[in-house]
Write a structure and sequence with these properties.
The protein is mainly α and about 100 residues long. The protein has two helices and no strands.
Length: about 100
């Protein structure tokens, strides 16, 4: 009789401990999921900023080339060429980074 009570008490205690561990594991998994979602959003923001930064750098190079051609005697509006090249360069960089990301995964 006493042995049965002790066995039942042990069983209840093990059950409580198991439930508590499951709750803690669930909290840890939820926390990890939240951090993974935050890291994904941060990565997407960094990728967007990379497109802008690389496009800006390339537009600067286009501007220098335009100025060099203008200095060589060609009649080029360097501001217009740079302005037209920006969306084209942005699209090329964006597609290139997406392709690179696709190839890496």
């Amino acid at each position: 009789m006493l042995a049965e009570r002790i066995a039942n008490t042990n069983s209840l205690l093990r059950t409580r401990v198991g439930i508590r561990q499951e709750q803690q594991n669930n909290q840890i998994l939820q926390s990890m999921n939240k951090r993974a979602a935050q890291q994904l959003r941060l990565q997407q923001a960094v990728e967007g900023l990379s497109v802008v930064a690389i496009s800006y750098y390339l537009a600067g190079l286009v501007s220098y080339v335009g100025k060099a051609l203008k200095a060589a005697g060609l009649h080029i509006d360097t501001d217009l060429v740079t302005g037209i090249s920006l969306p084209i360069l942005g699209l090329i960089v964006w597609v290139g980074l997406r392709q690179l990301k696709k190839n890496l995964s």
